[in-house]
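Morning run. Coffee first, then this:
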Amino acid sequence: MAAFDVIIVGAGPAGCAAAYDLGAAGKKVLLLDKKDFPRKKSCAGMIPASVVKNLRYSVAPVLQRKVSRSRIILNDERSEYISENISLASREEFDHYCLMQTLQQGVLFKRIGGIARIDLSGGVLIRTEEGEELRADVVIGCDGAISTVRKIFWPEVQPAYAFALEADVPHCPHIPQEEICFDFTAIKNGYGWICSKKDHINVGIYCRDHRYIKKADLICFIRKYDLEEPPEISGAPINIGNNATSPAADGVLLAGDAAGFTDPLTGGGIHEALISGQYAAQAVLEAHCGQSFQRYLELVLPLQQRIENKRRCADFLYARIPSEQGFAELLHSAERLTS
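And here it is:
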């Protein structure tokens, strides 16, 4: 039976962030995923400056360009512009690059069909759907919104799911390539975006409640901006809350989307995935007597508090759209009332 110090389930940003730091520290790490990389990922590919700054390596080779401003629409009468510092990337390329950097730290990667069972008797024992048994001291669940690790250890949790739909369409001369458009009138309790990438436009809609979004909403948004209708639409759920459930227990840590560490206002989660993955690694490395979960809870508490503040801001902001107030003014009011 193969044995490791840590097994990480999910090789996205959270999983790679944890694996990189653990591998660099000399731990024997196995990274599991149901997909081979590179793989298709439903995401606009807007990489915040905080992600570029906090990664342990440069991702310049897979960044297409920077965007310095966004167009914000809160009602159908006017637009406003705010400064941004966002890099654009293909998530297929970005995630694959991060995985390759992680494997250079001695981390092992294995594709599996899924996880059948996890036992915590005498450490962590994982049985894959293929019947292979793998042992470790700790398992870190970074396996996304529909997390198998979370379902096994916290079956009572009913996450709050948002949803995003997106499509790629050809460039249009009337869509500026130097800005990102965020239209908060596109869908109730959400927004639409238009983002010009290297060889196409990525267009999508986000809704904070997965029950009230459908492909027809995206088609309407596409038609509103006179874009070409896409041959294919993809989408994914986003876990914007685990009902205050602890993201850790003895021998088990959750990071990223699996833990509900996402921004409830925008649905973005790459920053939260990166930071929580690094915290998970730090907790394992600093743990005394194997109590990594206690250290992890200490580390992620400020992150949880920031996400909760953003949740209250999102409640305030979305309840007031369409709005005659400017975006910065509205956001400032939300932050003042929810602090």
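Residues 2-338 form a domain with the FAD/NAD(P)-binding domain fold (CATH 3.50.50.60). Good start to the day.
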